[in-house]
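Ticket opened by: R.M.
Priority: normal
Category: complex prediction / small molecule

The reporter submitted a protein together with copper (II) ion and asked that the result be attached to this ticket for the collaborator who will pick it up next week. Submitted input follows.
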Amino acid sequence: MPNYSPFPSYDPYRTNRSLRRGFMNDLQVTDPSTWSYTRGRFVAFGAAAEQRPEAGDMIYLFQNSMDPSEESFRLRPNGNIYYRFRCTPLVCGNMSCQGQTRVMTSFAPPGWDSSHGYHYGNPFNPQHQTRDRSCWVKNHGKTYNIDTDYEDDFPVGITRTFDLEISEKVVSPDGFPKVAQVVNGQFPGPLIEACWGDTIVVNVKNTIKNNGTTVHFHGLRMFQENNFDGANAITQCPIAQGDSFTYKFQLRQYGHSWYHSHYSSQYGEGTFGPVVIHGPSTANWDEELAPIMVHEWHHASAYDAFHDSMFSPAPPKADLITLNGIGRNHELGIGAYFQKTIEEGKKYLFRITNSAIDFHFHFSIDNHLLQVVSVDYVPIKPFWTNSLSVGIGQRYGVIVHTNQTASANGKYWMRTEYFDGNVKDSTFCQFPQQNYPPNQTDTQRVGVLSYSGAGPGEPTTTRWNATVGCKDPVFEPHLEWRVTPPQNDVVKNARYVGIDRSKEMHGAFRWLLAEQPQWLNYSNPTLLNIANASWNSEYVLEPYSYNDPEGFVYFIINSGGGPSKLTGGTHPIHLHGHDFAILSQGLGPFDVANPIYNTENPPRRDTAMLPAMGHLVLAYKTDNPGAWLLHCHIGWHAGSGMSLQILERQQEISSWIGGSAAFEPAKRGCRNWSEFLARHKNDPDVFNPIGQDDSGI
Ligand SMILES: [Cu+2]
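Result attached by the on-call engineer:
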């Protein structure tokens, strides 16, 4: 029986070894005369491991990997194919949702255009404008799509390995050089890109001379993976200079987010990067763009800026706003606008992330409406808006239809504008930023969207007549939650948060999220102490042992006021290890005596805004034992102490994350961290616990 392998030596991704795993390279047919194929090179076709292609299946061929003109053939009835399966997941096109098998393997789904920036290797870009994006993969004979309850069910993908080195490097986003702390020499760091259901291994090496580091993957549930949450002093010690730490986790969610250092003010120095997890969408788009990370950049060291923030009434002012590391410094007249060129008449998926330390903004593109399809890692029922509030740590997936004609030169401003308000009342949103005054329509321009063939000059378009502030948009998740009554005592859990100006703690007036500001020991993480019966009160640890995985704990957070007459403020509140439902969010303290909760499919996400002098009521499911941070994502506030840790189902943590072996990486890391500190205890440039001036996260 002759074997026939049409293109046995073809390797579509020979430029990047890490991608080869995603592709099948053997196709054997017992009798080539029983089937036909058009000329071209075999890239991939598919069905899952237990499946075989069947008669009538559509097979995709590509001429070559750089210029993927798509061709296809159909297997004839009784075509007999043997194959060795090496690829997963399998992206399904719209036809498979109608009962036919039309599947392709890919690293990046069709429509991902490498010309827009980030990519590993060489993704292809066939013409799939009619593609139904609600469908994702066929895997093990099952289709995973937008209706799959991803909390409990997800495809089984492949393992992708990434190496991240945290090091110091001079970067100059606006031409002004600064020693930054960056990932793989890039600012922002490289994209971590994968598919829903993949397992991710990230080897982090710290080569910074004087600081530790960690990497936290913002918004991932880290289900049964608390030990890889990357929160120093909670789940591990900082990674010492010269040491490495390997994070491993499975992607149960999809969408986009970011990873960042959780070590002190380090991410403000550039230690962060984007994450994209390809998956289904609640609305169709043609192409997706590389994620856009909005960051505020300080010419001064972020560590110094943090220090200043502790002793001045207003936080330090940023020098410029960057989009993917590019920005215009209005004071010095240097730097550049972020540029994006797109084609006319297409629907583009934009992935927006606020990776700032202290900057809240509204994102908009002149003349273009935004169709919002995802909020944080939650797919939502699409809604339209012309301007979108993005708090620190929040993300939005938005579809933009490039069908506008208003601009004479085919260019449109992208804007990140903000509102300040009165610091003394509920209108307060944030402090003014140097060089970026609120309501100043020149400085809020940060990027240019150009249609291909656009004329010379800057855009001449005007901003939407939009109201900006710090209010989260209201939306409905695609997969609905009904929030059941709380397991905990909500009256006890109604707290006032803010800054306590009555007494200094650890040398400063500090922000707090509980009865006292959090103050952690870098060298003694919670996870290595989970046998404890009592805790240092400065660790601000809240044990909850409710063990109904479908049950909820409610948190009531009031901004300012209370018995200590705290100063309020607007704060992006972020919970690790869970999405939470927003049961109430608004002005004034929450009325605990007459509570009104929105329990019918409320907005759900992992970072939500606590309004100034207002309240935020959130509810999370007690389904993921571990030690999880709840904190304000303003870097200065988190460093000040505005955080607490939830110790969820303490007795079950060890077995939940895999028993004693799961603690070994943290134990080893802590030994190395302690040795590093001991070695450098007389070195004034190296962190010394005696001089600790921040909370430890
Ligand atoms: Cu805050």
